[in-house]
Amino acid sequence: MAKEHLKIRVPATSANLGAGFDVFGIALVTPYDIIEFEKSDSTKIVMLGRDSQFIPTDPQRNIAGIVASIMKIPVNITIHRNIPISSGLGSSAAPAAGVAFGINEMFELGLSQNELVQIAAQGEKAVSGAAHADNVAPAIYGGFVIVHKDKIISLYPENIGIVAVHPEIIVSTRHARAILPKQLSLEDISFNTGNAASMVVGMMKNDIRLIGESMVNRVIEDIRSNLIKGYREVKQSAVQAGAAGVTISGSGPTLIAVCRMDERENIAEAMIQAFSEKQVKSEAFITTIGKGVSVIE
Known about the structure:
The protein is of the alpha+beta class. The protein folds into 2 domains: 5-156 and 291-295, Ribosomal Protein S5, domain 2 (2-Layer Sandwich); 161-288, Alpha-Beta Plaits. 36% of the residues lie in helices and 25% in strands. The chain is built from 10 helices and 11 strands. The protein has helices spanning 63-71, 93-106, 113-128, 136-141, 173-178, 186-205, 208-213, 220-224, 231-240, 264-277, and strands at 5-15, 24-39, 44-49, 75-81, 144-148, 151-155, 161-167, 245-248, 255-259, 282-288, 294-295. The strands form 2 sheets. Strands 1, 2, 3, 4, 5, 6 and 11 form a 7-stranded mixed sheet that branches. A 4-stranded antiparallel sheet has the order 8-9-7-10. β3, α1 and β4 form a beta-alpha-beta unit. α1 packs parallel to α2 and α1 packs across α3 (113-128). The protein is globular and about 55 Å long. The mean pLDDT is 94.
């Protein structure tokens, strides 16, 4: 029997992790969005919290409403936003994944996690122009996720310190994808594939040093780093403060550093200071790899 009301928590996510372009993603403990659902004869969207004034509430233009439409179930949706918009932290993936999960849970549809990912990815397509799942998959599965075609593999590494520093810089996902080359050299493909393989082993072993060393990506990171003022200085400051590795989160502008749990605060301070020296304001999320979407009540 369908529930009358449901409240869920949906995590921010970080995609690519350097070497795993459109393949790797992780769920973060913080930040996260809260989404509430109520049964209704038509879909209505209410946006509250961070950056909500910039997001349309028309269900045909809002990713939450688009996912509800794909699932052909009307529902009232209230989103309490905490994930910064256009940050590279899955701000559109969170409502896409959350609504797919929430409707499935509320109406007892019995859809698998994989099926929910495919639905949420179709919602993402409306925002980015491509139905990639490297954000929605970790938002649903949690942990570290490998997305390859319709296959999703999830691992759950523990005690991996993550510092996500979000600068006040605007990077369009569409633009960040459009500027990438259509082809890579065999040498660059080999280098990136080696780091991707090493990343998986690092996650399996909870090896922070190996994870950090594997976060290097040739070509894609080089090109996208030009969209982020202070990128090189901030990356260098994080490494000097103890980070095992630093990369762009998704299409940016957020940078994520991997480190020991007890090093996170010092690394966050160093990265914020480095951005400040470039006259860029930023904020840090002290976090780790966490669970996927979950029911609160």
